Amino acid sequence: MYIYGIDFTSTPSKRKHITCIEAVLEGDCLRVKELQRWTSLADFEHFLQRSGPWFAGMDFPFAMPRRFIENIGWPPAWRDYVGLVSQWDRAQFRTTLDAYRADRPNGDKEHRRVADARAGAISPQKLYGTPVGLMFFEGAPRLLNSDLCLPGLRDNDDSRIGLECYPGLLARRYIGRLTYKQDDPTKQTYEQQQARLMLWQHLQSEQLWEDYGVRLQTDAALIDDPSGDAIDALLCAIQAAWAARCSAPHYGQPSDVDPLEGWIHDPMLTNA
C-alpha cells in the first residue's frame, strides 16, 4: 500500500514548498521511498489525480468548526459550504472571516472543532501567524474537486483515501513542547537540531510500533532540514499508515465524527 505524508502550505513557491513523503506500507513496515517538493498548488492538484490505491495524510484543516458554520449561516453540509468557499477569491474569504470576528467578544472570535480541542490545535479560522484558515481555503476546495474518499466528510468507494493529520501532535508525544523547526534561517538553532535528533531517535524505537503499529525504515537525512518540512511530512505519513492499518470504514477515527467538522487521525485523539 502506498502511503503519502504531505506538509502543506497555502502559498507554495521555490522558497517554500509543499513537501511530500512517498512511502510503502508492507505489513507493519513503513518504508520511505522518496521525498518530493512541489512549488505550486497545481502540483498538489496533479497529485490528487494519481491512481490508487493509496492513503495520504495531509497537514491542513479539511473543514471548519460547526459553531462557526451555524453562526455565519453557511450550508449545513461539508460539500456545500466548501463549494461556496471555492467560488470566492482569497480577499473575499479574508473579508468574510474578518467580519465574523469583528463584533464578537474576546475569547469567542475563533472556534475550534472537537478534534482541534483534543489535539491542542488552533482554530481553522485563523488567518494570521500560522494561517491555517488560508490552508483550508486552498486545500479543501481541491479535495472537493477530487473524488477522494474523505472518511467522515465524504465517504465513497474510491481507493484513494485522504486523511487530515497533525504532525505537531505526534511530535509532542515524544519531545513535548521542544521547538524542532524554523523557516527563518536566521532563527534556526542548534537546540532545534538536537530536538529533531531526539524526535528521530523516538521514531526509530520500539515505542513507535507500540503507539502507531508501524516500524519506520528511512534515511536520517530527513532531520537535516531545519525548516522541519521533511520531518513533518514523515510524521503525517506515520499517522496515515496507522489509520490505514485501522482499516475501513472509520480508519481509526470515532464512529460518531461530526460530518461538518471531520477528524484528525492519530491514536491519541481516538483514545482520548
Explain what you see.
With 272 residues, this protein is an alpha/beta fold. It folds into two domains: 2-62 and 149-246, Nucleotidyltransferase, domain 5; 66-143, no CATH class. Helices cover 40% and strands 14% of the residues. It contains eleven helices and six strands. The chain has helices at residues 41-48, 66-72, 78-85, 90-102, 114-119, 132-145, 167-175, 190-203, 206-212, 229-246, 267-270; strands at residues 2-7, 18-26, 29-38, 54-58, 160-164, 215-217. Strands 5-4-1-2-3-6 form a six-stranded mixed β-sheet. The longest helix has 18 residues, at 229-246.
Give the SSE map:
Layout: E1 2-7, E2 18-26, E3 29-38, H1 41-48, E4 54-58, H2 66-72, H3 78-85, H4 90-102, H5 114-119, H6 132-145, E5 160-164, H7 167-175, H8 190-203, H9 206-212, E6 215-217, H10 229-246, H11 267-270
Parallel strand pairs: 1-4, 3-6, 4-5
Antiparallel strand pairs: 1-2, 2-3
Helix pairs in contact: 3-6, 7-10
Keywords:
alpha/beta; Nucleotidyltransferase, domain 5; six-stranded mixed sheet; 6 strands; 272 residues; 40% helix; 14% strand; globular; 11 helices; single chain
**Unreliable stretches covering 5 or more consecutive residues:** none
The CATH architecture of the largest domain would be 2-Layer Sandwich
**Topology pattern, helix = H, strand = E:** EEEHEHHHHHEHHHEHH
Mean pLDDT: 95
| Annotated CATH topology of the largest domain | Nucleotidyltransferase, domain 5
Sequence of strands across the biggest β-sheet? 5-4-1-2-3-6
Q: What is the helical fraction, as a range of percent? A: 25-40%
What count of helical segments does DSSP give? 11
**Main pleated-sheet profile:** 6 strands, mixed
Shape descriptor reads: globular
What kind of oligomer do you see? Answer: single chain
Strand content bin: 5-15%
Task: Compute the number of structural domains.
Answer: 2
> Helix/strand/pairing class, anyone?
alpha/beta
Alpha-carbon distance between the two ends: 28 Å
